[in-house]
Amino acid sequence: MLETGHSIMPTHKHRSDSAVPAGFSGCRRISAVTLESDNARWWGPGWVCSYRGWMPEWAPFEDVDSRAPGLVVGVTTRTPEVSWASFGSDSADGGPLLSSSLFYVASVAKQFTAAAIATLYLDGALDVDDSVRRWLPELPASWDGVEVGHLIAHTGGMADANPVDVAAGWGVQSRFTTWDRVGIIAATTPVSPPGAVHRYSNHGYVLLAAIVERATGANFGEFARDVLLAPAGMTSSRFVDTDGPAPVPGWSNGSRRIDIQFTCCGDGGLLTTLEDLARWNHWLPESRLAPVMLTSRPVLPDGSLAHDAWGISIREHRGLRIESHGGSIDGYLASFVRFPTEQLAVIVLANTDQFGVANFTGRVEQLMDSLLNDRINRSRPPWTQTHGEALSD
Asked: Which of 7, 53, 124, 206 is most buried, with most CB under 10 Å away?
């Protein structure tokens, strides 16, 4: 919960490299305190910030310790404009997390990998029925039946990625490239027939990024920047295989600082902000990619539709369609959820893994339900208006 009795910092005291949008409601600065728990040391001072006023819907996150690494949460509707709040600091120097803070978003990047493939498909540069070995002949003959579409839908029959990566000696702070990872994948064999089983696969999306590079002759991040990020207005975002600002550091188990070193793309690799993901949320459904990515779902052998394809999971919540994907890696958590019929999206980015995936997901769902209750009950003004007292400047 918010602490009382501490000074309120004016917006002009924010770090100069943090862009503060017009209409910013202010940040509450928490006094510098060092907390220790299970040998984990936190830092101070801390921050709680909001833009466009404080909303009761932020309640699932109010217990986040604002003196520690934390998260930024935002809600957006028909336009890229976003209402947001943040809890916690971006680094040990105590700067506030803002909607412009750069995060590593892990598997949220998969929809961008799929969008790159969809772009090439629509341009006629490749086909989803292509054998993966057409583009990656270094894969052994045991991969002959695996098609690009199988990788998109997580039905390529691939083995679990984690044991393979661990056996290679790679962790979140290791240095390795997309093609380094293709090399270790090439030493594996599918464990089930392609198309038979839906099995979530990080390695499948690494291979998709490699296919993009083979088909275009560009590195993945450059291609994604030119055909996806730039058209969507995501000017602060980049992939880790291109040069640019570093993200806010992640913190694992409260005490271990995480600085991303690898340049592998596909299953992850995107550095982005809350503001830029709001722009993506606005751009993708209106783009030429939407009929491919948001409408078509592969059919599994049992006749059911693959709920997770094109980097986006499609399901129902309270009778409403949800298009979503989460991301988790040591030091970072992310969630991107869109309700297309409600023209509503929720974005949460964290520079800590202290919540755990299940707890983090539960908090996001509490926020979603609160927003939906507003819409269903109509007992208050629309959530897009300011609720309650804004934090003082």
From this structure: 206
**Of how many residues is the chain composed?**
393
Q: In 222-245, which positions are buried (b, 16+ CB within 10 angstroms) versus exposed (e)?
A: ebbbebbbeebbbebbbbbbbeee
The whole-number pLDDT of residue 57 equals 76
Torsions phi, psi of 252, nearest 5? -105, 130
DSSP single-letter state for residue 287: S
pLDDT digit string, tens, across residues 12-37? 223 333 444 444 455 655 443 333 33
Report the C-alpha gap between 12 and 4 in whole angstroms.
21
Q: Provide the β-strand partners of residue 75.
A: 83, 346
Q: Which of 119, 232, 227, 140 is nearest to 182 (CA)?
A: 140
Longest dimension (CA), the chain: 68
DSSP 24: E
The secondary structure element, H or E, covering residue 52 is none
340-359 per-residue burial string, b: 16 or more CB within 10 A, e: under 16: beeebbbbbbbbbbbbeeee
Query: Bigger pLDDT: 306 or 104?
Result: 104
- Can you give the C-alpha Rg of the chain in angstroms? 21
Q: Round to whole Å and give the CA distance between 144 and 158.
A: 13
Model's pTM, two decimal places?
0.85
For domain 107-236+279-312, the question of CATH label 3.40.710.10 is answered with yes
Closest alpha carbon to 276 in 87, 68, 6, 84: 84
Query: What mean pLDDT comes out for the span 263-276?
Result: 97
**pLDDT tens by residue, 287-318:** 999 999 998 787 887 888 888 889 999 988 88
